[in-house]
Amino acid sequence: MKTLKGPGIFLAQYIGDQAPFNSLSSIAAWAAGLGFKAVQVPCGNPGIFDLAKAAESQTYCDEVRGTLAAAGLEISELSTHIEGQLIAVHPAYDKLFDGFAPPALRGNVSARQAWAHGQMLLAAKASRNLGLQAHASFSGALAWPYFYPWPQRPQGLIEEAFAELAKRWLPILNAFDEAGVDLCFELHPGEDLHDGATFERFLEAVGQHARARILYDPSHFVLQQLDYLQFIDRYHALIRAFHVKDAEFQPSGRSGVYGGYQSWLERPGRFRSLGDGQVDFGAVFSKMAQYDFPGWAVLEWEDCIQNSEDGARLGAEFIRRHILRVTERAFDDFAGVKADTAFNRGVLGI
After folding, report:
1. pTM of the model
2. C-alpha 131: how far from its chain's center?
3. Contact present, 130 and 61 (Cβ < 8 Å)
4. Were 43 and a residue from 37, 51, 140, 329 both cysteine, which residue would form a disulfide, CB within 3.0 to 4.6 Å?
5. Which of 124, 215, 120 has the alpha carbon at shortest distance from 178?
């Protein structure tokens, strides 16, 4: 068993124009002051982290690590959720996701996808230069508009979508393999990879690629009404990144899983700050330790009620309390007897 590393914090929801959220050194000092030990760094904010420079310059990566080390922090993973999303976009979502791309590429689907592909390749190199073992991303989606089987899906539609998804991701997975880094897809509604069944389908399509791995976030499973504890039992060998995020699901006679087009505040399923939702994190952390999860427990804050800075402050302590320092000996070792073949045969009456 392994003791999880943490707490870490995903910076995406905190980076901004005002101090202390507008530079790597100041946001690092802020995070460290709350008790965090690592940061998960998004790749789309050059003022915080310059992905292109990190991919080409070991000196720059050493400087980034040095800046964080001065605050007592490490990088848990880099994140390309935004860039990964653009690897595969169904036309129904083109306008909505166009804002994820640089302004000059908006309205040009092929150029946008090529840019996202290039960013993913840079992320593989940057992760290697930073000495990281895992990377966090989204899969994008071609089949998501058809997730509900009405109207009846044409035969072969989903198979074709996953074949194309695999075609787009295989060169990227190979680049991460060359870099020695696992590419961890956050299983998330809106992505073609959103549960165990879809991840299995993707794994088959990419030939069981050794770098295709999972970012586990139980909050997304609460909102899908998927058993997030059985998921760990079933897929623990594939989990290489971990977002600690809470959620609640309170269905009524009026609205359920699909949410009735309501805002996050009004939906039956909504994200909450740690401890305010329904996730049994005691059981989650126990299972992650039991199965030797090798990575970081990283807070991702998304709550439509609580202030984000309060969520970070309380979240750091919440994660710290839930990390189990695993035992180095069995609780009944005091009653143990040294191995003795003759004694054991005597006990068995043979």
Report:
1. 0.94
2. 18
3. yes
4. 51
5. 124
Contacts of 335 (CB under 8 A, 6+ apart): none
Burial (Cβ within 10 Å: 0-12, 13-18, ≥19) of residue 256: middle
Task: State the residue for tokens 């970081």.
Answer: 296
Average pLDDT, the chain: 96
- 155 Cβ neighbours under 8 A, 6+ residues apart: none
For the chain, the straight-line distance linking the first and the last C-alpha, in angstroms and rounded, comes to: 35
**What tokens were used for 299?**
């807070």
Cα 52 from chain centre: 22
Write the pLDDT tens digit of every residue in 243-290.
999 999 999 999 999 999 999 999 999 999 999 999 999 999 999 999
pLDDT of residue 213 exceeding 90: yes
Pair 45, 10: CB distance under 8 Å: no
Rounded Cα–Cα distance for residues 149 and 349 (Å): 63
Q: Of 209, 198, 183, give the one whose Cα is nearest residue 231.
A: 198
**CB distance 78 to 132 below 8 Å:** yes
- 228: amino acid identity, one letter: Y
Would you say 255 and 286 are in contact if contact means Cβ atoms under 8 Å apart?
no
Instruction: Say how far apart CA 170 and CA 100 lie, in whole Å.
Output: 22
Domains and CATH numbers, the chain: 5-348 (3.20.20.150)
pLDDT beyond 60 at 334 = no
To which H or E segment does residue 162 belong?
helix 157-179
- Structure confidence at residue 339 as a pLDDT band (50, 70, 90): confident
Task: Confirm if 81 and 138 have CB atoms less than 8 A apart.
Answer: yes
CA dist., res. 231 & res. 226, Å (int) = 8
SS3 118: helix
d(CA 348, CA 223): 52
Q: Cβ(54)–Cβ(44) under 8 Å?
A: no
- Best CA proximity match to 296, nearest among 41, 75, 30: 75
Token digits of residue 344: 């054991």
Distance CA 134, CA 176 (A): 9
Position 152 pLDDT exceeds 90: yes
Per-residue pLDDT for 330 more than 70?
no
